[in-house]
Amino acid sequence: MIHPTAIIHKNAHIDSDVHIGPYCIIEEKVKIGKGTKILGHVIIQDGTEIGENCTISSFTSIGSPPQDLTYKGEDTTVVVGHNNIIKEYVTINRGTPHNSGVTKVGNNNFIMAYAHIAHDCVVGNNIIMANCATLAGHVEVDDFVIFGGLCAVHQFCKIGKYAFISGLTGVPKDIPPYIIAAGSRAKPYGLNVVGLERHNFSKDEILKLKKAYRILFRSSLPLSTSLKIIQEELDGEKIKELIDFINSSKRGICR
Questions:
Q1: DSSP string, 25-67
Q2: Which of 27, 108, 201, 236 could form a disulfide with 196 if both were Cys (CB 3.0 to 4.6 A apart)?
Q3: From 119, 142, 148, 160, the catalytic residue
Q4: pLDDT tens-digit readout, 92-107
Q5: 75 is catalytic
Q6: Any catalytic annotation for residue 183?
Q7: Would you say the pTM of this structure is higher than 0.85?
Q8: For the sheet containing 19-20, what is the strand order?
């Protein structure tokens, strides 16, 4: 299952059910789980962990040093979960000692060609990143987020679950869960109704989130007043998640 032209360090831990294609380079202390397929010309660098049943396409680089001028070769890593599809020319950088030292990618993600996940990012599960979508350092992405092509997220931003980031969008602040964001500097453009329906949100949940959206983004009220009204008038787990996300935001939300 390993092509004779692949270069694999003797201290790499590779399951016997892993397929490694031609001209791949697997460095020291790399771990690769069963059922994973690594196509030709892939480089996986020192200390990276790849889970089970992933497919990693040609010319991908995982675990390379962070694009951070303060990084001095410290022992950091990348951890990638299970069932991920990673397409051509994707780059995922290792973490830095300024945070946990780990860049994390969860499970069941579809990361398309030329996408970039920078140092110390925490990417959840069931996420789609279209071609050339870019996450700067320390970005956190909740589950079921979709990124359009050629979008870019500023460092330290957070993206809430089930959000949809349109193509060609620059994200300078946090994006709350459940909304569509678009524009050269991201602005909210409505609730991600299609995405919520596809994931079996009830009509009642969607109606409550629509009302919360109107109060937050269409009422011209101060943010603190909007949150107070939502908390008093609406209930439910999804509403609580929305309020908690906004209250915990350090960069502020796109509004």
A1: EE-TT-EE-TT-EE-TT-EE-TT-EE-SS-EE-TT-EEEEPPS
A2: 201
A3: 119
A4: 999 999 989 999 999 9
A5: no
A6: no
A7: yes
A8: 19-20, 37-38, 55-56, 85-86, 110-111, 128-129, 146-147, 164-165, 179-182, 187-191
On the CB side of 10, CA atoms within 13 Å amount to 0
Catalytic residue at 199? no
**CB-based contacts of 182, cutoff 8 Å, min separation 6:** 165, 166, 169, 189
Q: In the chain, pLDDT over 70 holds for what percent of residues?
A: 100
Q: Which domains does the chain have, with CATH numbers?
A: 7-141 (2.160.10.10), 202-248 (no CATH)
Residue carrying the six token digits 């990693």: 56
Using pLDDT thresholds of 50, 70 and 90, give the confidence band for residue 238. very high
Identify the active-site residue in 51, 137, 148, 160: 137
* Both structure tokens of 77: 């890593």
